[in-house]
Amino acid sequence: MPSIDDFRAETRAWLADNCPAGVRGPGPMSIGSTKLGMPEDVRLWQTRMAERGWTVPTWPREYGGAELDKEQYKVLIEEMTAINARTPLTGRGVNYIGPTLLEFGTDDQKARWLPRIARGEGAWAMGYSEPGAGSDLASLALKAELDGDHYVLNGAKIWTSDAMDCDFIFVLARTSPDKPKHEGISLMLVDMDQPGVQPRPIRLLSGASPFCETLFQDAHASANDVIGGVDRGWTVGKRLLQFERSTHAGINISGSQGGRREESRVPEIVQRYGVAGESLPAALRDRLTRYSMDDAAQKLTQRRAIEETRSRAPGFTSSAVKLTGALLKQEGDELMIEAMGTQGLGDDAGTFESAELAITRNWLYGKSLTIAGGTKEVQLNIIAKRVLGLPD
Ligand SMILES: Cc1cc2nc3c(=O)[nH]c(=O)nc-3n(C[C@H](O)[C@H](O)[C@H](O)COP(=O)(O)OP(=O)(O)OC[C@H]3O[C@@H](n4cnc5c(N)ncnc54)[C@H](O)[C@@H]3O)c2cc1C
User: Fold this and answer.
1) In terms of C-beta density within 10 A (0-12 exposed, 13-18 middle, 19 or more buried), how is residue 245 classed?
2) φ, ψ (nearest 5 deg) of residue 48
3) Which domains does the chain have, with CATH numbers?
């Protein structure tokens, strides 16, 4: 086993030789979609990193990982960040369903799915929310009826991000309608490339449209692809949500997170637009100072959460770090918009620079961060009950 210094030196040298110029700095990242085109450098980077097990650095070798320990993983991320390398493969495959399979999958399921996920062979959508089941997720009604060796699915999922570009979807479905609502749910994997699965785009306030409503009409899922056991989906599905929340929070060490970290541009933008005369108005300066302190505290908390994690990803801590991260991002966006005045409220028809429009869109998109992955109130309920031990 090489020392950590040797590992750093080897990693640095390998990255220098193998990280293409086109994946250094901001730009597109692969989610493994077979439906989206990919720039050549992005494809090459994904292939090279997958061969080395570094698309999922902490996973076992037999499933496409490199079995890095936490310290090595940290070094890899630091070295990627130092050269501005982007994450070679991201999305719900490597970050959500992969780690869930590692914990709950049978040997057969792990062998069939994990190496493909690690290589980026197919993008994954998440089929949890329904028109009548969001925060109250256990009320979900997507019906799954066993018919020989497969389940037949009927119903609808909503807010399925990126579903138009995805190859597979993991769904929470109702397998036993007669049981109490938390006990009749199963998590299963579904191929989206079949006539019974139809994603339909939904347009958003921010202009972009990553959302879909996904309809299931006699769609099939193999009975071999129920994860964690039939009617055990509530337990398995909640663990997957922890992987999702820890990804949002930047503390999911069992996924592919890594590479370029955006340094906060809030102080720079606020200074640039917000200066009246010689200095920032006092109220804005106070908020900016508080924001900068909270930003530093958030980074330290992320580091601590990773260091203290003994399993594949933090448990209930992910709710707290996800929530504070989302609130911080929203406050940073508000500060920029306030400092920019009317320049922060652009639309395509106005005389706004593209960088200004990007800040406006980001501000609008940021509103969703206290909804996606469970709302702010849901996270606060989890923290109250599971972390602080307060009564129901
Ligand atoms: C950007 C984005 C991406 C998403 N991607 C996906 C995806 O890929 N797949 C997927 O399945 N879903 C996805 N979602 C859906 C998301 O999980 C739900 O929007 C979320 O769980 C809230 O559900 P809801 O929209 O039905 O709101 P509701 O549950 O109807 O909530 C409405 C309001 O009531 C409050 N509320 C509800 N219950 C309580 C309570 N017990 N205590 C206090 N307040 C409460 C909520 O906090 C909220 O303010 C995404 C959402 C967003 C915004």
Assistant:
1) buried
2) -65, -45
3) 4-104 (1.10.540.10), 123-230 (2.40.110.10), 262-387 (1.20.140.10)
What is the predicted pLDDT for the residue at 5?
A: 97
Q: Which residues pair with 173 in a beta bridge?
A: 186
d(CA 145, CA 234): 17
* Residue to substitute in 375, 381, 383, 392 for testing ligand 1 pocket (most ligand atoms within 8 angstroms of CB): 375
Helix axes 70-82, 4-18, angle to 10 degrees: 40
Cα distances (Å, whole numbers) of residue 179 to 7, 132, 173, 232, 255: 52, 19, 13, 12, 34
Distance between CA atoms of residues 353 and 355, nearest Å: 5
pLDDT in tens, 128-147: 999 999 999 999 999 999 99
Percent of the chain with pLDDT over 90: 82
Give residues with Cβ within 8 angstroms of 300, minimum separation 6.
none
Q: Which of 79, 213, 244, 331 is catalytic?
A: 244
pTM of the model: 0.95
